[in-house]
Amino acid sequence: MAVIKKVKVSICSGGKKLQEYHPPDNDASPDMKDTPDDTLVKYIQGVSDANFTIAFRVGKKFGFGKANYLRFTVTVDGEHLGGNVCTKEDYQKGGSVWKHRYKGLTELSSNGQGVCYPLRWASLTSTEQSCEGQDIRNYQNLGTIKVGVWRMNGGKGTPKPKVRKGKIHDPVPEKAIKGEAIDLRANLDVPRPHKAGSFYKGTKVDDKPYAVFIFKYRSKESLEALGILERPQTPQPLEERDIETLSPDELKELARRLKAAQAEQKVKIKKENAESNLTQLADLERGRNDADDDEVEFVGEQPVKRVCIIGPVIE
Prior knowledge:
Blueprint: E1 2-4, E2 7-13, E3 16-17, E4 39-45, E5 51-58, E6 69-76, E7 79-87, H1 88-93, E8 98-102, E9 104-108, E10 114-123, E11 126-127, H2 134-138, E12 144-157, E13 172-173, E14 184-188, E15 192-193, E16 199-204, E17 211-218, H3 220-225, H4 248-293
Parallel strand pairs: 4-17, 11-13
Antiparallel strand pairs: 1-2, 2-3, 2-5, 5-8, 5-10, 6-7, 6-12, 9-10, 10-14, 10-15, 12-16, 12-17
């Protein structure tokens, strides 16, 4: 849980507080430039389609000064989503300790009934569409949950009913989030009935926030890409490990692999022998054809007509 001067804030999901990580040394985002002592930046791991809440806590010996209440303002992805109030009276009634869980944006519907929009992470889609100037600044707070704490002096007021229109999250230009390893964004979930709380209106006691908490949510893969989480090491193959260190199940698996490798080797040898035999047969056939081409054809002599000369016999 992030702590600044007796005030603690944490992000919760799946029924537990999420692990917080220090920003990497090469984080060049605007939030890391000249960060004052009253501002704390942490990274957390978000999961797509998972709901999340924000836990607030004010510890003992907190100094209200001239203020009679604290206002916790919640901004997600650059959009203000209300917050909560810790009055000095409630703080004292709780034994100088105050705790609260922010579950989402709460508003009054047109019929005066309270509703709550739970917070939920969703996968971010990007586009190659061009993005310049003001457009880039509109996206610079993506992947960020910001909680500001103000000391206030005032009292209860009357909230005005609102009808919230569903926000359409269009694909984000890749140029706007280049180098940020952002692959998640926050959505407002389906509204649920909610008991309307008290509305306070007042003036700020200080010129700047008492404390600012900034949580940058990223997926596990993005945290690994940023070097915040270690990448899982590739396990050493069983064939390369010392056999004395293998468990019974690993020994069985190794034996199965060796048996499969031997069977594969036999098939390979048979295939190579068959190919060799085919090659030899082809060579023999080629040799026979060549021998037939070299044979000499003998043509028989034409018959010779014999001439019989009969003459007188000289004795």
